[in-house]
Amino acid sequence: MNIINNRVTTEPPVAIALKAVIIKKLIVQNISFCVIFNIMANLFDYIKWRGDICFSASPFNPVDNIIISQLSYLTLDGIVPSPDDKTSISIALAVRVFNERLKSKESIKLTSVFKEDPDLIRALGASRRFGNCQLFGYINQLDTNLELQFAALCINTNDGYNSISFRGTDSSLVGWKEDFNMCFKDVVPSQLEAVKYLDEMAPKIKGKLRVGGHSKGGNLAIYAASNCKKSIRKRIKVIYNNDAPGFNEKFITSAGFLAVKDRIQSYVPQSSVIGMFMEHGKSNIIIKSSESGIMQHCLYSWEVTHNDLVRAEKSTISSRFINKTVREWINSHDYSQREKFIEALYYIFKAADVKSTTDFENSWFSSAGKVLKSLGNVDESTRKFIRKTIAELFVTAGRNLHTLHQGSEDS
Length: 411
What we know:
- This protein is α/β, with parallel strands linked by helices.
- The chain folds into three domains: 1-31; 40-315, Rossmann fold, CATH 3.40.50; 322-405.
- It is built from 19 helices and ten strands.
- It has helices at 13-28, 33-37, 43-50, 62-71, 91-99, 105-111, 117-126, 128-131, 173-181, 189-201, 216-227, 230-233, 249-252, 255-260, 317-331, 335-351, 357-362, 364-377, 380-399; strands spanning 2-4, 7-9, 89-90, 134-143, 148-156, 161-166, 208-214, 236-242, 264-269, 285-287.
- The protein has an eight-stranded mixed beta sheet, with helices on both faces. The chain has a two-stranded antiparallel ribbon with strand order 1-2.
- The longest helix has 20 residues, at 380-399.
């Protein structure tokens, strides 16, 4: 038994060595060796394979996109210069400062959204490809009164481009509330902040631009590119949208969106839920994930090759079922009904003193009890409305069960 890249294998050493030689040749020949050997590789594997190759030798690709998008989830306050600061810091140097914050488990929770994030920035800092990339323009805002959760940063990749990465939803309750507000509002605060950020940062940056993000971050990237100044919009060469919620019909028929539509690259995993939410105005590129269900939303689970994301033929039946059910359920309620339902749920969770999803993770039994108690404190008409709305979701799901039997689940 051998351990390769933290994986256990029973292959003999000679076979492993031979495979390594073949893989190196395939990389040179630009062949997708992951598909040939059925390797479920992730972005950490990519950094090991390609971390010693700079962007001038191997151009920016979709895997680099998800790495840059994930990087924006790190809490880098006091490490990366703010938008008002004219300086920058390399990822390699940022890692040294960041490591000082990782001396206790508590600090890890405060400095990252995903548990893998600290390992990611360390791997990037140690690589030739990313280590010298400059970080700047970091901003991190959370306002419960405005129901705003927004963060972004800029990355100079030393290839004539600067990437602007918008953070997706973090673990805060207000962050999730802002997401759900998209159901009944034409625009939410973080979208306005994204436009403001792009308009303010782009003039300070020379060269071509990439914008992108994961989850809500992808939504913000599209919204900002569609509504920024025309002179800035012309400099944007690509917009990366990674499993992000969409927009209403009004937005995707707007002149701003239509002006950038052909520059959008939208990726969703096979069992996407978040990325199927609302309208996108163009087709998604479906990719493979090593996880299942909603867990496929995590970028760390997305399968990669040496220069691309692994494509899938189509989405899973469960994804199409959930998409159809949620769309029908949402569309059966007008904006006022959606707002009433979301505001009621938010009030209940807020009254239960739930401030983040980690509150449930750390003490789910206690938190659940507080939520139930809070539900009991709302007036009877509100409780009936909540029960009725949730019941309608189950009715809609039952009506769409036949879609699960129209074919076998994708592997």
